[in-house]
Amino acid sequence: MSMPFGYASPEQIMRDKADYARKGIARGRSVVVLQYADGILFVAPNPSRALHKISEIYDRIGFAAVGRYNEFEELRLGGIRYADINGYTYDRSDVTGRGLANLYASNLGRIFTESIKSLEVEVVVAEVGDTPDGDAIYRLTFDGSVFDEHGFAAMGGQAEAVSTRVKERYREAMPLAEALETAVVALTEPGGERPPVGQLEVAVLDRNREHRKFLRITGARLERLLAQTTGPVESAEPAEPESGSGDATTGPESGSGAAPQAPPTGPDGDVDDGSSPL
Amino acid sequence: MASHRDLPVGLVNQLFHNTGSSSFTEFVGSYAPELLPQRDKILATPIGDQVPHATTIVAATFAGGVVMAGDRRATSGNIISQRDVEKVFRTDDYSCMGIAGTASTGIEMARLYRVELEHYEKLEGRTMSVNGKANRLATMIRGNLAMAMQGLVVVPLFAAYDADRDEGRIFSYDVAGGPYERERFDAIGSGSIFARGSLKKLYRDGASADDMAMTLIQALYDAADDDSATGGPDVTRKIWPIVSVIDADGFRRLTEEQVSGYVEQMLEARLISPDGPIAPLR
């Protein structure tokens, strides 16, 4: 049988879709989600105050996303509806991050296979437990894969480089200020400039809060937290070796050595600064 | 031949269908209408007297906030059906509601209302205005009118902290809705006549949260004194009224110890003067 005109193998179609989605996601900036002593911290460089990348879904569940705003916003709204309707039908404790992650996964997977264009998004669903053992961070990719992350997750932009930088500094049960510093350092290109306070979107799921655990950290409180650690940055570094990432202990230096003041190596295209709804 | 263009695309689950409204109730109405309170059924016989009724709720503003308190009694006719029922509910970080009337209907309404407020807040990324909250509750009560006519009456009292004005606000309702904004204080339920009379004499403008909590406990005692359906503080079982304070720091329910402190102080004074504090004549 001769192949009909315009035939493309399923492998080719899937590969093309995946490449397309990956490019779109890498164009934006990264988001870091990590565990700290009292819960889970979300940090995203985001110049827009109106278009959030981080959001509350339910009492214990938070949401962070990168990629196309209109697409992950749809996911976010759907997630809130899912959570509220389940909490109303049963009990507030019956809404779980796992259930939400599964809902997202099935939808992302379906769209990836059935639609011409997959969603150009990557999503983190995080749930805070009564103890650190109960915390969960699920990272979902555009094709519906779910990754059960331990401790931290980075996505979007130069996700791998950011993830490596988080890993270098990350340790369990960090205080909030140190965790925030870890995230901000990871989100800063080696040798690059730190994102200004006004362009950071920061939120926590704090297990010690009553009722709703989600809290945005803005303004004076955020500045205070950042100021707490900008001084002893050096003192924080000697503690690194025990974080176990032995192969890259000289993180920032080796990173900048590999790419001395090089611009981001992401695909061409405008940087998604969150200012456009598209 | 179905091409991929004919297949369902996008987020196909109904959950991802944008209803164009931030109202949870509207969404549930289209997604799973059987979950909403059934309000249009005709009951074979009015059952108002046979189900537990919640009784008295009082609320009063103070400098920079509002306090709401409720007694703990539920009655079915002349029977005390529960001694420790909770009738004051936190609805979001800056508001609460108390219910009088059919307890079950009221509890269900409070549960739905809480989700309603939070749902809007999460979808829109902002808290609903106090007037918006009050109006939304009015619509829900209006929806219950058919049931109210058959005896399942529920009337709430709504209190919220208004950040724009830095003050507490109180709204009352009737069976057909509302809202009616109340200055200074209000009471609902079977003992409300007596509680309101008490509040009229004891309310002080610009009082502290502490003083106002005491005032409300006095008013509830006065209501329980004259109304059989309102429960006074149960000293032997250690059941105290529920007192909630809302101010710029948000909603907080006073602990058992705090409330028992107020109650003991009041009871001690009432051993000497059983009718409570005496308002100055001039």
Automatic annotation (TrEMBL), chain A:
Compositionally biased region (Acidic residues): 269-278
Residue segments, region Disordered: 229-278
Chain ranges passing through the membrane: none
Coiled coil segments of this chain: none
GO cellular component terms, A-Z: cytoplasm; proteasome core complex, alpha-subunit complex
Pathway recorded for this protein: Protein degradation; proteasomal Pup-dependent pathway
Comp. bias regions, Low complexity: 231-246
Domain of life: Bacteria
Alphabetized Pfam families for the sequence: Proteasome (PF00227)
Keywords: Cytoplasm, Proteasome
GO terms, molecular function: threonine-type endopeptidase activity
Xref: Gene3D superfamilies: Glutamine Phosphoribosylpyrophosphate, subunit 1, domain 1 (3.60.20.10)
Keyword presence, Cytoplasm: yes
Alphabetized InterPro entries for the sequence: Ntn_hydrolases_N (IPR029055), Proteasome_alpha-type (IPR023332), Proteasome_asu_bac (IPR022296), Proteasome_sua/b (IPR001353)
Function (record text): Component of the proteasome core, a large protease complex with broad specificity involved in protein degradation.
Complexes and interactors: The 20S proteasome core is composed of 14 alpha and 14 beta subunits that assemble into four stacked heptameric rings, resulting in a barrel-shaped structure. The two inner rings, each composed of seven catalytic beta subunits, are sandwiched by two outer rings, each composed of seven alpha subunits. The catalytic chamber with the active sites is on the inside of the barrel. Has a gated structure, the ends of the cylinder being occluded by the N-termini of the alpha-subunits. Is capped by the proteasome-associated ATPase, ARC.
Family: Belongs to the peptidase T1A family.
Protein name as it appears in the record: Proteasome subunit alpha
Annotated organism of origin: Nonomuraea cavernae
TrEMBL record, chain B:
Biological processes annotated in GO: modification-dependent protein catabolic process; proteasomal protein catabolic process
Residue numbers annotated as active site: T55 (nucleophile)
Originating organism: Nonomuraea cavernae
Annotated PROSITE patterns: PROTEASOME_BETA_2
Pathway listed: Protein degradation; proteasomal Pup-dependent pathway
Keyword Translocase carried by entry: no
Quaternary structure and interacting proteins, as annotated: The 20S proteasome core is composed of 14 alpha and 14 beta subunits that assemble into four stacked heptameric rings, resulting in a barrel-shaped structure. The two inner rings, each composed of seven catalytic beta subunits, are sandwiched by two outer rings, each composed of seven alpha subunits. The catalytic chamber with the active sites is on the inside of the barrel. Has a gated structure, the ends of the cylinder being occluded by the N-termini of the alpha-subunits. Is capped by the proteasome-associated ATPase, ARC.
Protein encoded by which gene: prcB
InterPro entries linked: Ntn_hydrolases_N, Proteasome_sua/b, Proteasome_suB-type, PSB_actinobac
Catalyzed reaction equations: Cleavage of peptide bonds with very broad specificity
One Gene Ontology cellular component: cytoplasm
Protein name: Proteasome subunit beta
Keywords annotated in UniProt: Autocatalytic cleavage, Cytoplasm, Hydrolase, Protease, Proteasome, Threonine protease, Zymogen
Function field: Component of the proteasome core, a large protease complex with broad specificity involved in protein degradation.
PANTHER family for this protein: ATP-DEPENDENT PROTEASE SUBUNIT HSLV, METALLOPROTEASE TLDD
Gene3D superfamilies reported for this sequence: Glutamine Phosphoribosylpyrophosphate, subunit 1, domain 1
